[in-house]
Write a structure and sequence with these properties.
Keywords: ATP-binding, Cell inner membrane, Cell membrane, Lipoprotein, Membrane, Nucleotide-binding, Transport. With 225 residues, the protein is an alpha/beta fold. It has 7 helices and 10 strands. Strand 9 and strand 10 form a beta hairpin. The mean pLDDT is 95. Bound molecules: adenosine-5'-diphosphate (2 copies).
Amino acid sequence: NDVLKLEQLEKSYNPGKPNAIAVLKGVNLTIPCGQVVALVAPSGAGKSTLLHIAGLLDTPDSGRVILQGQDMTGAKDAARTAARREALGFVYQFHHLLPEFTALENITLPQLANGTSRKAAEARARDLLARVGLTERAGHRPSALSGGEQQRVAFCRALANAPALLLADEPTGNLDPGTSETVFSALMELVRATGLSALIATHNLELAARMDRVLRLTDGQLVEA
Ligand code: ADP
Ligand code: ADP
């Protein structure tokens, strides 16, 4: 039972032009349900390209993206958007929380958009906030939270609609080492408690080593580190 399968992904930018660049040259990856995978790559190796394709935000030139057993490669935009909303959670280096809403509201809103009742959405938001130690911060806007707190709220928002797969791009990249450690631990506890599968890009090899498996993106291919 695999949550994600990437088969022979290839992706180039500016094909046929003098500045052409082949970024992915046959990427293969299978993530079984519940597995947490670290993606390690030097800057420019194609990590964002890979995460965008896995997250159905971009399409490969060739190869297949299979999400929960469904081939999404040639799927229509509406189906890709629906799959993104229902099956995927995203976390970035910057939190991207809505500044005019509280922490609780930032976690509630995506659930309302997916048809969850307000009562159930708020209950889930409070439960997620409690899991990352932010019960007391539910009513604060992002500007009133520390960087580490903002990022923990962003994790809760990513998990709000109970996705099958979390895609994270340097989730602690903006934080100082101490905060980074605390925030990463909170993320891992959240992921483990919910049985979530995850693909987490990081430059931090110590954090990578705490995941189930470490993959390196090098010369357009994924290799076990
Ligand atoms: P990473 O996230 O590992 O830093 P990216 O996936 O962002 O790498 O980029 C990989 C390579 O592809 C880089 O050389 C980058 O300059 C290039 N690239 C990324 N996006 C585009 C684009 N839209 N057009 C042209 N080149 C791009
Ligand atoms: P970067 O990785 O370049 O620093 P950010 O961390 O600021 O980027 O996150 C912005 C990213 O969100 C963009 O790269 C963009 O491709 C991506 N994105 C665009 N639309 C969506 C969407 N609907 N859901 C999630 N991410 C999206």
